[in-house]
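Protocol step 4 of 6: structure prediction from sequence.
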Amino acid sequence: MSSQPSKDLETFPNPNPGRDYTIRIRVPEFTCLCPKTGQPDFATLHLEYVPDRQCVELKSLKLYVWSFRNEGAFHEAVTNRILDDLVRATAPRFMRLTAEFGVRGGIYTNVIAEHRDPGWTPPPLVQLP
């Protein structure tokens, strides 16, 4: 596998496709460029998903995230683009991407984007004592 930035997202078969379970991934080193100033924007990405048939392979995710380092993008656009690419690659039952951008001019931005397969119903929440 390459050690260069790449837009290719690799997947592997879900080892338990008959069960709803959540995968949570934290990516603390996301960077892109402000499309207005060219200055770097820094974010922590929080990915949560319920896989169906495919799971995202982590090294390819790392190289994919790296590929944005020199691209200009508004926070809202890049968050939705990443979610769309991950959904296209994995076709999950549910996926949520939260992008927590660092302060820029005294303003913090969090962008949350979600995908839900129309045929999927989440299991009921279990409240334990």
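Step 5 (inspection) to follow. The mean pLDDT is 95.
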